[in-house]
Design brief:
By secondary structure, the chain is an alpha+beta fold. It has a single domain, classed as Endonuclease, Chain A (3-Layer(aba) Sandwich). Helices cover 48% and strands 13% of the residues. The chain is built from 4 helices and 4 strands, in the order αβββααβα. It has a 4-stranded mixed β-sheet with strand order 1-2-3-4. A hairpin with a 4-residue loop joins strand 2 and strand 3. The radius of gyration is 15 Å and the shape is globular. The protein starts with 9 loop residues before the first helix and ends in a 5-residue tail after the last helix.
């Protein structure tokens, strides 16, 4: 699993120019609250994660591997636990966390832009 990219994944590379062209300026690979979100809107204290359908278990597209299923089940559970822990940690220090599936980026990036924009313009309540 060392070959799995942590940043500059295909879904991220699809979303970033759409957000940028919409005038939304973000930072990349910035450490926040003990984790590294895919995108970070520092002034608004909003972070974005683009979760891969396979690695994070998208309810619409995840198909568990047939071989070594116990390993993959445990791996997915660990990923979910880490995601929940990261969300709590970030929210505890005053950040809003937005998570999108890679399939959402492929299917409806415009909706994601609208959602991100709404979170950036809504006053953050900690």
């Amino acid at each position: 699993m060392q070959a799995v990219r942590r940043y500059d994944t295909e879904p991220e590379m699809r979303l970033r120019p759409v957000l940028w062209n919409a005038g939304l300026r973000y930072r990349l690979d910035r450490r926040v609250g003990g984790t590294r979100p895919d995108l970070c809107f520092v002034a608004a204290r909003v972070v974005v994660f683009v979760d891969g359908c396979f690695w994070h278990g998208c309810p619409d597209h995840y198909a568990p591997p047939v071989h070594n299923s116990a390993f993959w089940k445990e791996r997915l559970e660990k990923n979910h636990a880490r995601d929940r822990r990261d969300n709590r940690r970030l929210e505890r220090v005053g950040w809003s966390v937005l998570r999108y599936w890679e399939c959402e980026v492929q299917d409806d990036a415009t909706r994601i832009v609208q959602d991100v924009r709404r979170h950036l313009t809504t006053p953050h309540i900690s």
